[in-house]
Amino acid sequence: MTRRSPVLVAIDQGSGSSRVLAFNRHGRLLAQARRPLSTKAPRPGWVEHTPAELLRGVTSALTAVLSELGRDPIGIGLTTQRSTIVLWERGTGRAVSQALSWQDRRAAAVCDQLASSSARIRRATGLFLSPHYAAPKLRWLLDHIPGAQRRAERGELLCGTVNTFLLWHLSGGALHVTDHTQAARMLLMNISTLAWDKGLCDRFGIPLCLLPVIAPTVAEFGEITVGGRRLPVHASIGDQQAAAIGQGGGLPGDLCLHYGTGAFALLNTGTTLRRSPRLLSSIAWSDSSRQTYLLEGTVNAVGSGLEWLQRNWRLPKDLRSLDRLAAQSQCPTPFLPALAGLGAPYWAPWADGIGAGFTLSSGPGDVVRGFLEGVAFLVDRITAALPIIPKRITASGGLSDLSMLLQAQTDFFGRPIRRARLRETSAWGAAVLCGVGAGLWRLPAEAVNQGCYDRIFQPKGDQRVVEAKKRVWARLVREACLKERYSGVSHSE
After folding, report:
1. Of the listed ranges 79-83, 167-171, 299-303, the one predicted with least confidence
2. What share of the chain is helix, strand, coil (3-state, %, to 5)?
């Protein structure tokens, strides 16, 4: 293969599937493969994946794409779900736990025990003490797997988020490494020093020998081997940061919205580390000489909540039909999508989903419309907490196909939103960073295709109606955050 026709391959491992996509340098899709990933919820608050299935899906999809291409790419860019944690044996690679999803809340009691350290954790990491992040879940695993703490201290076990787990196994155990964006989601990396914080590791009781080496998002990570082919990995990055880059480079002042399993709002703050009382501070991307920062907020269960509605209300599976249902609704039933707790700016992990306004005439379309407006409201509350007014707002992700969602979002914002033409922005963002690492571009913004937006949504709603809706949603949030949940009341008497 010549430098005149480089191929970039992105591994995009998410909560619902493992995908591999190959692009040329202009963003044209050359080949792709997808393998589903099952998600289990064995108990209330528990969400997990099977590590072997996760690895098998990525390997299968990567093999299929490489076979279709018929030639080697110039490198691999890896983007994965963040905060999902796996624990495995150093000697055999065998996972000793399920992969605890970022949506998993079983470690809430760990966070309660460390509440006195929450301010210290917040200052050091830019995050809130929450069971959604990796360190509390890792502490839970070490407490509940017999002998795990002693084995970890002896160096017999390794841990990592999904990117680390994949790199270790695909390299035959040669690479135990992560990147700044993924390490930043573990509640163990100091965002100022970009190194593991020994004080925080001690507070969580996590041995340093358990943790991977931290590298920039663009770096020479090493080689992986698939089907006898040795391929260099030039980039590793969290899926939401990758989506921001894939939307158009993530320039300072850009607000990037990404709708998938969750909904994420990321404001690029350039080379300045900004802090906000109710939002997360983190790394947007980095290389050996620079770091770019962001402010972020999350709505925890959007795609997963929609799947729950589809399953329990027997709704159509395709997004186009759901969009039509929502458009037909004349009387939406407000449905707050707190099915995995509330993220920013409320930080109420044990909040419950809650609906209102049901009547004998309420139909499936009213529920879908109410759910989508609930997502739009929660994202609006994230942006209301930003200390900076965004310059531009762009949306992407599979659920951005729901025009009723983006129209509701635009009406709540009172500002236009551009929708990215390419829905697979996480994969393209990882491919772009791979290109930066391989020397195709100096900066991600140099890879931007200027014609990458297919629609601009303009505000249409009456502002008085919008404000009245916000007051209704605010009341539902207060109800959802009530500590004593109806599900905890005994019905056996």
Report:
1. 299-303
2. 35, 25, 40
Return the DSSP state at 341: B
Counting every residue written for the chain, the total comes to 493
Amino acid symbol at 464: R
Angstrom distance (rounded) from CA 348 to CA 377? 16
Q: Is the pLDDT of residue 489 over 50?
A: no
The pTM of the full predicted model, rounded to 2 decimals, is 0.90
Q: For the stretch 62-100, what's the b/e string if a residue is b when 16 or more beta carbons lie within 10 angstroms of its beta carbon?
A: bebbbeeeeeebbbbbbbbbbbbbbbbebeeeebbbbbb
Geometric angle at alpha carbon 466, from 463 and 470, rounded to 5° = 140
Amino acid, single-letter form, for residue 327: A
Domain ranges of the chain: 8-237
DSSP state of 123: H
Listing from the earlier edge strand, what are the strands of the sheet with 85-89?
48-49, 99-100, 85-89, 157-161
Tokens of 271: 């080379």
SS3 category, 170:
helix
Nearest to 205 by CA among 117, 289, 283: 117
Class of domain 8-237: alpha beta
